[in-house]
Amino acid sequence: MTERYGYAGKILRVDLSSGTINHTPSADYADRFLGGRGIAAKIYWDEVPADVSAFDPENRLIFATGPLAGFSGLSGSRWQVCGKAPAMTPEEFSYCNFGGRWGGQLKFAGYDGLVIQGKSDRPVYVFIDDDVVEIRDASALWGKNTVETREILKEELGRTVAVVACGPAGENLVSYAILLADNDASGSSGFGAVMGSKKLKAIAVRGKGKVTPGNLEKFKEVKEHVRQLLWKGPGYMELIAKPEAHIEVVPGQKVKLDLCLGCAGYDGRITVESRDGKKRGKSLCGSSLFYLDRVSKYYGEQNEVPFYVNRICDEYGVDALAIESMMKWLSRCRHAGILTDENTGIPLSKVGSWEYMEALVTKMSLREGFGDVLAQGIQRAADTLGAEAKELVADYVSKAGHLLTYCPRTFPVHGLLYAMEPRQAVNQLHEMGLVLFQWVNWANGLEGAYLSSDVFRKIAARFWGSELAADFSTYDGKALAAAKIQDREYAKECLILCDFTWPVTHTLSGDHIGDPSIDSKMLSAITGTEVDEEELYYIGERVLNLQRAIHIREGHRGRESDQIPDAFFTIPLKGHAMNPECQAPGKNGEITSRTGMVVDREEFERMKDEYYQLREWDVATGLQTKAKLEELDLHEVAQDLGRRGLAV
Ligand code: SF4
User: Fold this and answer.
1) Any idea which fold 320-391 has?
2) What are the pLDDT digits (tens) for 402-460?
3) For residue 551, how far is its CA from the centre of ligand 1 (angstroms)?
4) Is any atom of ligand 1 closer than 6 Å to the C-beta of 291?
């Protein structure tokens, strides 16, 4: 490591067309863009012209860690992949965020990031072993699934290497192809297909470096503070020791904790072993719920099918969340008589069964028969089938093909968070979303629930700019809340902190109000340079503006494009499993129900006005102003957008 604490010092660059391998200094980016999304977005801005398609060799696959990567006890070893994303309709810059240990290994090998460009003429993989970086033949790996690929490379190179790979879906340029890494950490946006387009099967990395904090005393203090903030109450240690006692699994399945490198908390990240002991796979948040209800309905009981369908998605390398919305659309098309078991070759009538999912995932990944249509993604597949099928595209599907959750009819602030992002930015939605779920427990009198309306208001004032953010009956105060959430979450994506742990908005003890200043304290301790909360958020604001500029350059039309699906304005809200009564706090913290609500169009536009004003963008067009970009030290961006007539 160099003396610039928190950074390995180099960004590795691999050009698969020429076979060139070199590196550039991280210092070129670190001060202004910190790490993760910030550095990746800046590299993308500098190097990927707006009209380059996702599968063009000139597209970049940019892997980035943050300054906290590699340190223990902070949950800060996440890593990002960014580039032009084929899952988006239309294609545009996007991102994904991984856990596990691959990012930490990259940093230990001496690199804060890795930029892949060009295209190989034969299948290859990249092997990084500290200073030794090689492009190696991967003919024998082509066609293998993600897990097989990982295992073959670990057998060959040693178990300590971390591997990220694409599966057959990526090789076949399926829009929803994922990347899968160690600990079954996966990343969407279609970057598995970008890797496939470059004929790059995998990247294996091993590093022997270490990380050192710039201020050891402060680092120890901050870690202790983090530990106390995250203390989760009685029973927590038993939970860590025996996760199977707290997680519902099918009888006979074994579970094992599977934490990411440097985890400070624990969120239920486990691996599950099938009853016959032949397969292991992750169970975490979305993956633990995927296909569960459909299986129960189809078989009349819970069984191992959800485990196997998660596994097949990971092995072929397709995004289970995108499959979720695709299933909804396929069922609608079947009921409308557009699609049948016969004309698709997929047993659509048996949704919920193993056969259904096996056929869907296999055909799509291998582009067999009707799978070739589905491989384009929902929106393009619907275009192929015609107007009626297009009308049946799920109402709440993001540009990345995901169903939209944490609905803006419940959370007025989420209308803005959805409108400004290329994909569902779940980390932004979690900030208020997870607080609301705790409040719902309190509203329903659950034993031990402490997040009352009063606590909610205080959290709102501390984290989201004013107590108004905790009043779900009004659109007032929501533009400010959106800006606060975004600035913090963009900074978080640069550090890169885990979304399951950060921010700590509420605590079990004391006044129950969390501490947003801890992120900047961790950064200060690691870099040895003092950064306060506001300075960190300012970097977040800069990175948000950079990402906005990229999208504007790629065709996003400002105010006109800052939209949410029409269904949110027209279809009244119904309850869901996490909040059946759609409960939310009202004006004076009273318990109200938002059942039947829609987003008010006029209020939504008024929120946008207020939001653009707060951002110091042009209110009429939603375009950024050159003055604001200059103020954010984004001079090159101001000049470029100004020249194109895309900033005022
Ligand atoms: S909380 Fe979960 S996802 Fe986050 S770092 Fe820990 S194990 Fe990984």
Assistant:
1) 1.10.569
2) 777 889 999 999 999 999 998 889 999 999 999 999 999 999 999 999 999 999 999 99
3) 30
4) no
Q: Distance, CA 621 to ligand 1 centroid (Å)? A: 40
**What is the C-alpha separation between 339 and 287, in angstroms, rounded?**
27
For residue 480, how many other CB atoms are within 10 A of its CB?
18
Residue 263 CB less than 6 A away from ligand 1? yes
Residues sharing a CB contact under 8 Å with residue 338, sequence separation 6 or more, in sequence order: 385, 388, 389, 392
CB of 75 shorter than 6 A to ligand 1: yes
Distance from residue 235's CA to the centre of ligand 1 (Å)? 19
Full DSSP string of 457-506: HHHHHHHHSSGGGG-TT-STTHHHHHHHHHHHHHHHHHHT--TTT-S--B
pLDDT tens for 53-88 read: 999 999 999 999 999 999 999 999 999 999 999 999
Q: What pLDDT sits at residue 439? A: 97
* Residue 182 DSSP label: G
Tell me: pLDDT of 313 over 80. Answer: yes
Report the C-alpha gap between 647 and 116 in whole angstroms: 30
Which CATH number does the domain 10-206 belong to among 3.40.1360.10, 3.30.70.120, 3.40.1580.10, 3.60.9.10?
3.60.9.10
Single-letter residue type at 640: D
DSSP 137: E
pTM: 0.96
Return the structure tokens found at 361. 């995932």
Residue nearest to atom 8 of ligand 1 (CA): 260
Per-residue pLDDT tens over the stretch 267-289: 778 889 999 999 988 887 777 78
> What dotted CATH number matches 412-601?
1.10.599
Q: Identify the residue whose C-alpha is closest to ligand 1 atom 2.
A: 267
Instruction: Tell me what pLDDT residue 114 has.
Output: 98
Q: How far is the CA of 637 from the centre of ligand 1 (A)?
A: 35
496 preceded by a cis bond (ω within 30 of 0): yes
Exposed/middle/buried for residue 295 (C-beta within 10 Å: 0-12, 13-18, 19+): buried
Contacts of 317 (CB under 8 A, 6+ apart): 145, 146, 165, 166, 167, 168, 169, 170, 177, 178, 179, 180, 192, 365
Cβ(413) – ligand 1 distance below 6 Å: no
Q: Is the CB of 259 under 6 A from ligand 1?
A: yes
| pLDDT at residue 247, rounded to an integer | 65
Rounded distance between C-alpha atoms, residue 591 and residue 578, angstroms: 16
Q: Is the CB of 500 under 6 A from ligand 1?
A: yes
- Same fold yes or no, 10-206 and 320-391: no
Pocket test for ligand 1, best of 270, 271, 492, 501 (most atoms within 8 A of CB): 501
For residue 77, the ligand 1 atom closest to its alpha carbon is 5
Q: How far is the CA of 75 from the centre of ligand 1 (A)?
A: 6
Backbone angles phi, psi at 396, to 5 degrees: -115, 45
Q: Is 269 in the pocket of ligand 1 (CB under 6 A)?
A: yes
CA distance 300 to 172: 36
At residue 616, the pLDDT reads: 98
Q: What are the tokens at 235?
A: 């029973």
Segments making up each domain of the chain, as ranges? 10-206, 320-391, 412-601
Asked if residue 12 has its Cβ within 6 Å of ligand 1, the reply is: no
524 — pLDDT class (breaks 50, 70, 90): very high
pLDDT at 362 over 80: yes
